[in-house]
Design goal:
EC 3.5.1.2; single chain; acetylation; Beta-lactamase; 5-stranded antiparallel beta sheet; 307 residues; Glutaminase; binds glutamine; two-stranded antiparallel ribbon; alpha+beta; 13 helices
């Protein structure tokens, strides 16, 4: 028998696919070529059951949704204290690519904006392989599938990555970057170009919802404390300068990416992922935000709702 959850997800797509405002990101030329009408949603329970609808097999680059997972890896490798020494946990209230560090501490304000994510990437231990290989393997364990880089997206961003290079040199000059600026940016950009589907992302998010244990394999990929810390940072900083609107309206820890994906995590319950390439002024998917808002309302996901 067909699950009512699948019917619900089909309805969610059909009720939001008329929304055509916003534009795909164009500061990375390859992303501007995305089909703007692609749309998908997936949900994964902490038991590992995935429900998906729309263009659920369509692959797109993970972009900033890689940031929370890379941050978790850096914490596992270096310990929370060392990571906290270099990267803050305060919402910036600024755009994701703002050229700024906290004036008092000289640190990036949090790991969800580019400054913090570049510093994070440099903290991942390479363990005899490149950092990017390590990150890809980690994404593979989280999603249960081999994850590869979309080389066209990676080279397109590498060719236009001056702003991220500027950020890396700024970090380096204030002693907040553990690696070489060029190498850190190249690694960070390749990390962002990992190619995923909404089903992959729902499983990755469900691993966070499940306290760090991949729901299908039962493998503990992150310790409970890092997972809790990371989800707290996603809740306060994951949606950049729209973080307050998001927490009040949708009410779950989330992270968006400029290719049009958004993941959300309801601890102990479910991981969700949506995709649609047209973005609003904050760099968040317009249809994606609408789908997440409806999911939160219809399924009662808001964390602050008394049950
Ligand atoms: N790779 C992108 C960048 O650094 C990620 C930004 C995003 O998804 N918000 O600009």
């Amino acid at each position: 028998m067909r699950s009512p959850i699948l019917d619900y997800l089909d309805t969610l797509i059909s009720e939001t696919d008329h929304i055509s405002s916003g534009e795909p990101a164009d500061y990375i030329p390859e992303l501007a070529a995305a089909d703007p009408d692609k749309v998908a949603v997936a949900l994964c329970t902490v038991n590992g059951t995935v429900y998906a609808s729309g263009d659920a097999d369509h692959q797109f680059s993970i972009q900033s949704m890689s940031k929370p997972f890379a941050y978790a890896l850096a914490i596992e490798d270096q310990g929370l204290e060392r990571v906290r020494d270099l990267i803050g946990v305060e919402p910036s209230g600024e755009a994701f690519n703002e050229l700024s560090l906290d004036p008092e501490t000289g640190k990036p304000r949090n790991p969800m904006i580019n400054a913090g994510a570049i510093a994070t990437h440099a903290l991942i231990a390479s363990e005899g392989q490149s950092r990017v290989e390590r990150v890809l393997k980690f994404f593979g364990s989280l999603s249960g599938r081999t994850i590869e880089i979309d080389e066209a997206v990676a080279s397109s961003e590498l060719a236009t990555g001056d702003r991220n290079l500027g950020l890396a040199y700024l970090l380096h000059s204030s002693g907040q970057l553990a690696g070489d600026p060029q190498e850190s940016v190249t690694g960070y950009i390749r990390q962002c170009a990992a190619s995923v589907t909404v089903s992959d992302l729902a499983l990755m998010a469900a691993t966070l919802a499940n306290g760090g244990v991949q729901p299908r394999t039962g493998e503990r990929l992150l310790c409970r404390e890092s997972t809790r810390h990371l989800l707290s940072v996603m809740a306060s900083c994951g949606m950049y300068d729209a973080a307050g609107d998001w927490l009040t309206g949708v009410g779950i820890p989330a992270k968006s990416g400029v290719a049009g994906g958004i993941i959300g995590v309801l601890p102990g319950q479910v991981g969700v992922a949506v995709f649609s390439p047209r973005l609003d002024g904050h760099g968040n998917s317009v249809r994606g935000v609408e789908m997440m808002q409806r999911l939160s309302e219809d399924l009662g996901l808001h964390l602050m709702e008394a049950s």
